Give the backbone structure.
Amino acid sequence: MEPVIDQAFAAALYSDGDAGLDTGASLLAAGPAADAELFRRGEEFVRRSWERGWQPADVVRLVRRDLDETAAGLAAGLIVSETARYERLPPRWQGQLDALPAAPPRNRPDRFSYASAVLGLYRLLLRLPSIEPVGPPPGASPHGLHLPPAHDEPRMLTRIRALLAKAEATGFPEEAEALTTKAQELMARHSIDEALLAARTHSKEAPGACRIGVDAPYETAKAILLDAVAAANRCRAVWNSDLGFSTVVGFEPDLDAVELLYTSLLVQGTVAMAKAEAGQRAGGRRRTKTFRQSFLMAYAQRLGSRLAADTARVTAAGAGTGPVGPGDPALLPVLAARDMAVTDTAERMFPETTTTRVRGATDLDGWTHGTAAADRARTGGNGPELRGGRGDR
């Protein structure tokens, strides 16, 4: 049945219109004997995406954004099947696989509709561009890329996760502020402990990288927030606006901290924004979009200075210049060396970046409420400029 699939692919995958998809879907719907080969071809498309630098969460996020939830489920089914052939997966992959949506049943609601959805997915997978790899593909040797060892979540990260979960759940702003501040302090101390341990043991650990989705709407404000969280935790974030993610570069414990804190702060900010917006609507205002945009921009920018201040305070105390007492005099040189390693790695990964000028906020009420929410969450943004990777021009 390969000729049927080849004919369907020729009609559907190399054209942009719906007519080609309909023609290809009709051919596949009439040839049920081709189903197994059709699925195998899909696994090949997924395998090629790994070779181009993509990871499971990246693929599903883009498919969901550009197509729909059904296509995301189809992609997830292919990913699960394709990755089952490897004895060992790269770090972070298992967590991504565990979070995949369920695959829809095959040939439902009918063969034509299913084939049309599959061909639409394959057309997108075929056109995925190459992106900067953040680790080797499964089944390949590292080839010089940093491959951190697989490890269970450190106890410190478990404590941080619990604090942030409480901050998201509480209805009392003061409690959320205290919990979030405590979480950032623990992250900063954990980073310092890891840096000193690596220096004392002469560890050859190098910075790694991970990708974090930055989804619409208001993705610019979200990218600023992620940039702020990354900077406060000794990482660098590079935003790819076209593909909807930021690549965060840093040492492994710091990458974990950034992902945890950014996700929590986004939840806290969204909840605070909804409450503030409800109050605005009760007062008769209807400029929802400008209010939300200004709210999140203020929230992100204010949080930057707050997070940076928390980290600076813990670092000063650890270096023996703060109120906690004598620290390790070797700390500042160790941290400076790690900062330089992170910067060098980011510049090697992204030798060409552009600076994005952020459009100013236009809603004073949104800005005021966003700033107040940031003060309660005690987190913040890094300023009005972002760096973008290739393709962001």
